[in-house]
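no rush on this but wanted to send it before i forget. what follows is a protein written twice so to speak, once as letters and once as C-alpha coordinates for the fold. mainly i need to know what kind of three dimensional shape the backbone takes. thanks a lot i owe you, the record is right below.
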Amino acid sequence: MIPDKPDGESIRQISNIAPDAKLRGYVLTAMFAGIAAAAGYMLMLVPNIEAVTAILFTAGYVLGFRRGILAALIAAVLYFGLNPQGGLFPPLLAAQILGVALAPILGVYYRLLNPQGVYRYLCLALAALTATLWYDFLTNLAFPLSVGLDMKGILIMLTTGIPFSLIHIAGNIAIFIILVPLFIGVLNKQYKTG
Protein backbone atom coordinates (compact mmCIF):
# COMPACT_ATOMS: atom_id res chain seq x y z
CA MET A 1 0.00 0.00 0.00
CA ILE A 2 1.24 3.47 -0.87
CA PRO A 3 0.89 5.97 2.01
CA ASP A 4 -0.66 9.43 1.53
CA LYS A 5 2.75 11.05 1.99
CA PRO A 6 5.25 8.76 0.32
CA ASP A 7 8.52 8.12 2.05
CA GLY A 8 11.72 7.21 0.21
CA GLU A 9 10.92 3.48 0.08
CA SER A 10 7.46 3.89 -1.44
CA ILE A 11 8.84 6.28 -4.08
CA ARG A 12 11.37 3.61 -5.08
CA GLN A 13 8.55 1.04 -5.30
CA ILE A 14 6.52 3.32 -7.56
CA SER A 15 9.47 4.00 -9.84
CA ASN A 16 10.13 0.27 -10.13
CA ILE A 17 6.69 -0.39 -11.58
CA ALA A 18 6.22 2.84 -13.58
CA PRO A 19 7.55 2.76 -17.13
CA ASP A 20 10.62 4.89 -17.69
CA ALA A 21 10.84 7.61 -20.33
CA LYS A 22 12.60 5.35 -22.84
CA LEU A 23 9.91 2.67 -22.62
CA ARG A 24 7.20 5.33 -22.82
CA GLY A 25 8.86 6.64 -26.01
CA TYR A 26 8.82 3.17 -27.58
CA VAL A 27 5.19 2.63 -26.63
CA LEU A 28 4.11 6.00 -28.01
CA THR A 29 6.10 5.40 -31.21
CA ALA A 30 4.35 2.05 -31.70
CA MET A 31 1.00 3.60 -30.81
CA PHE A 32 1.33 6.38 -33.39
CA ALA A 33 2.56 3.95 -36.06
CA GLY A 34 -0.34 1.58 -35.40
CA ILE A 35 -2.96 4.31 -35.31
CA ALA A 36 -1.62 5.84 -38.55
CA ALA A 37 -1.66 2.46 -40.33
CA ALA A 38 -5.14 1.67 -38.99
CA ALA A 39 -6.41 5.10 -40.12
CA GLY A 40 -4.99 4.39 -43.56
CA TYR A 41 -6.91 1.13 -43.80
CA MET A 42 -10.03 2.70 -42.32
CA LEU A 43 -10.20 5.39 -45.02
CA MET A 44 -8.71 3.46 -47.93
CA LEU A 45 -12.06 3.19 -49.71
CA VAL A 46 -12.48 6.99 -49.70
CA PRO A 47 -10.45 8.29 -52.67
CA ASN A 48 -7.70 10.78 -51.79
CA ILE A 49 -8.89 11.37 -48.22
CA GLU A 50 -6.59 10.09 -45.50
CA ALA A 51 -5.62 10.81 -41.90
CA VAL A 52 -2.18 9.15 -41.97
CA THR A 53 -0.39 12.43 -42.65
CA ALA A 54 -2.11 14.26 -39.77
CA ILE A 55 -1.41 11.43 -37.34
CA LEU A 56 2.26 11.29 -38.32
CA PHE A 57 2.48 15.10 -38.06
CA THR A 58 1.14 14.76 -34.52
CA ALA A 59 3.67 11.98 -33.88
CA GLY A 60 6.47 14.36 -34.77
CA TYR A 61 4.97 17.02 -32.51
CA VAL A 62 4.80 14.63 -29.55
CA LEU A 63 7.77 12.32 -30.10
CA GLY A 64 10.32 14.58 -31.74
CA PHE A 65 12.40 14.05 -34.85
CA ARG A 66 13.85 10.52 -34.48
CA ARG A 67 10.84 8.78 -32.97
CA GLY A 68 8.45 10.66 -35.25
CA ILE A 69 10.39 9.46 -38.30
CA LEU A 70 10.49 5.93 -36.85
CA ALA A 71 6.70 6.00 -36.36
CA ALA A 72 6.32 7.13 -39.99
CA LEU A 73 8.61 4.36 -41.24
CA ILE A 74 6.75 1.66 -39.29
CA ALA A 75 3.33 3.03 -40.33
CA ALA A 76 4.41 3.21 -43.98
CA VAL A 77 5.64 -0.39 -43.99
CA LEU A 78 2.47 -1.59 -42.23
CA TYR A 79 0.13 0.34 -44.47
CA PHE A 80 1.80 0.73 -47.87
CA GLY A 81 3.97 -2.37 -47.73
CA LEU A 82 1.14 -4.72 -46.74
CA ASN A 83 -1.69 -2.93 -48.55
CA PRO A 84 -2.72 -4.53 -51.86
CA GLN A 85 -3.35 -1.02 -53.26
CA GLY A 86 0.11 0.33 -52.44
CA GLY A 87 3.75 -0.67 -52.41
CA LEU A 88 3.42 -2.91 -55.45
CA PHE A 89 6.71 -1.71 -56.89
CA PRO A 90 9.87 -1.00 -54.86
CA PRO A 91 10.30 2.55 -56.25
CA LEU A 92 6.68 3.34 -55.35
CA LEU A 93 7.05 1.91 -51.84
CA ALA A 94 10.25 3.94 -51.35
CA ALA A 95 8.44 7.08 -52.54
CA GLN A 96 5.53 6.40 -50.18
CA ILE A 97 7.90 5.94 -47.22
CA LEU A 98 9.87 9.10 -48.10
CA GLY A 99 6.61 10.91 -48.75
CA VAL A 100 5.11 10.33 -45.30
CA ALA A 101 8.45 10.94 -43.55
CA LEU A 102 8.06 14.70 -44.03
CA ALA A 103 4.91 14.89 -41.87
CA PRO A 104 6.61 14.20 -38.50
CA ILE A 105 9.44 16.59 -39.40
CA LEU A 106 6.85 19.31 -39.98
CA GLY A 107 5.24 18.36 -36.66
CA VAL A 108 8.56 18.95 -34.88
CA TYR A 109 8.91 22.39 -36.47
CA TYR A 110 5.30 23.24 -35.64
CA ARG A 111 5.99 22.47 -31.99
CA LEU A 112 9.13 24.62 -32.05
CA LEU A 113 7.21 27.52 -33.63
CA ASN A 114 4.35 27.14 -31.14
CA PRO A 115 2.03 29.35 -33.23
CA GLN A 116 -0.94 30.99 -31.54
CA GLY A 117 -4.29 32.35 -32.73
CA VAL A 118 -5.00 32.48 -36.45
CA TYR A 119 -1.32 31.91 -37.17
CA ARG A 120 -1.76 28.40 -35.73
CA TYR A 121 -4.29 27.49 -38.43
CA LEU A 122 -2.22 29.06 -41.18
CA CYS A 123 0.80 27.00 -40.08
CA LEU A 124 -1.31 23.83 -39.99
CA ALA A 125 -2.70 24.54 -43.48
CA LEU A 126 0.81 25.21 -44.79
CA ALA A 127 2.10 22.01 -43.18
CA ALA A 128 -0.75 20.01 -44.73
CA LEU A 129 -0.12 21.58 -48.12
CA THR A 130 3.64 20.94 -47.96
CA ALA A 131 3.38 17.35 -46.73
CA THR A 132 0.69 16.45 -49.26
CA LEU A 133 2.44 18.07 -52.21
CA TRP A 134 5.68 16.28 -51.29
CA TYR A 135 3.93 12.90 -50.97
CA ASP A 136 1.88 13.31 -54.16
CA PHE A 137 4.85 14.50 -56.19
CA LEU A 138 7.03 11.57 -55.09
CA THR A 139 4.36 8.93 -55.63
CA ASN A 140 3.14 10.40 -58.92
CA LEU A 141 6.75 10.36 -60.11
CA ALA A 142 7.61 6.90 -58.76
CA PHE A 143 4.68 5.03 -60.30
CA PRO A 144 5.50 5.82 -63.95
CA LEU A 145 9.17 5.12 -63.24
CA SER A 146 8.15 1.77 -61.71
CA VAL A 147 6.31 0.68 -64.84
CA GLY A 148 8.98 1.94 -67.23
CA LEU A 149 7.33 5.00 -68.75
CA ASP A 150 9.47 7.53 -70.60
CA MET A 151 9.59 11.27 -69.88
CA LYS A 152 6.40 11.91 -71.87
CA GLY A 153 4.58 9.25 -69.82
CA ILE A 154 5.91 10.72 -66.59
CA LEU A 155 4.66 14.20 -67.54
CA ILE A 156 1.25 12.78 -68.48
CA MET A 157 1.03 10.98 -65.11
CA LEU A 158 2.04 14.10 -63.21
CA THR A 159 -0.51 16.25 -65.08
CA THR A 160 -3.37 13.79 -64.84
CA GLY A 161 -2.65 13.44 -61.12
CA ILE A 162 -3.32 17.14 -60.46
CA PRO A 163 -7.11 16.86 -59.83
CA PHE A 164 -6.54 13.96 -57.43
CA SER A 165 -3.77 15.90 -55.68
CA LEU A 166 -6.07 18.90 -55.26
CA ILE A 167 -8.66 16.70 -53.54
CA HIS A 168 -5.91 15.16 -51.39
CA ILE A 169 -4.57 18.61 -50.45
CA ALA A 170 -8.00 20.03 -49.62
CA GLY A 171 -8.83 16.98 -47.50
CA ASN A 172 -5.55 17.15 -45.60
CA ILE A 173 -5.87 20.89 -44.97
CA ALA A 174 -9.34 20.32 -43.51
CA ILE A 175 -8.14 17.39 -41.39
CA PHE A 176 -5.11 19.36 -40.15
CA ILE A 177 -7.15 22.45 -39.25
CA ILE A 178 -9.97 20.54 -37.56
CA LEU A 179 -8.38 17.44 -36.01
CA VAL A 180 -4.72 18.22 -35.32
CA PRO A 181 -5.49 20.92 -32.71
CA LEU A 182 -7.81 18.43 -30.99
CA PHE A 183 -5.14 15.69 -31.06
CA ILE A 184 -2.49 18.04 -29.71
CA GLY A 185 -4.80 19.41 -27.01
CA VAL A 186 -5.63 15.96 -25.70
CA LEU A 187 -2.02 14.79 -25.86
CA ASN A 188 -0.74 17.95 -24.15
CA LYS A 189 -3.07 17.27 -21.24
CA GLN A 190 -2.40 13.54 -21.08
CA TYR A 191 1.36 13.42 -21.69
CA LYS A 192 2.47 16.95 -20.83
CA THR A 193 4.00 17.47 -24.29
CA GLY A 194 3.29 21.18 -24.63
Notes: The two ends are 33 Å apart (CA to CA). The chain has one domain: 20-191. Confidence is low (pLDDT under 50) at residues 1-18.
